[in-house]
């Protein structure tokens, strides 16, 4: 028997409610050729994930000529540019998600229902390998 968890918390964990990255692997880039790859993060099984507060962090190395651009609400990053060096480059993306914004103590609501602000886990990280050939 689980103690200290509500029935909703247990259901959220069974549904794996928490942030996930997509895609989990990157396509290779070609030397001196334009490259564009978007990485999104969203809360699995949460229809109102765009109302949560996201904080993304990057650590690691990108090849010369490739830049990292942050998307709206830090729910995405885009790698773009023209790589000028071959090799295998590794980096990590980490995300921390906090409850949706509140207005006078009331969770913002959509017309179809209330935001579910119970998450099984509120952070995730992923290691990417980025190859330039």
Topology of this structure?
Layout: H1 7-14, E1 19-22, E2 35-43, E3 53-60, E4 66-70, E5 76-81, E6 87-98, E7 102-103, E8 106-107, E9 109-110, E10 113-114, E11 123-132
Antiparallel strand pairs: 1-2, 2-5, 3-6, 4-5, 6-11, 7-8, 9-10
Can you offer a commentary on this structure?
This protein is mainly beta. The protein has one domain: Immunoglobulins (Immunoglobulin-like). The chain is built from 1 helix and 11 strands; from the N terminus they run αβββββββββββ. The chain has a 4-stranded antiparallel sheet with strand order 1-2-5-4, with no helix packed on it. The protein has a 3-stranded antiparallel sheet with strand order 3-6-11, with no helix packed on it. It has a two-stranded antiparallel sheet with strand order 7-8. A hairpin with a 5-residue loop joins β4 and β5. The longest helix is centred in the first third of the chain and has 8 residues, at 7-14. The chain is elongated. Residues 103-117 have low confidence and may be disordered.
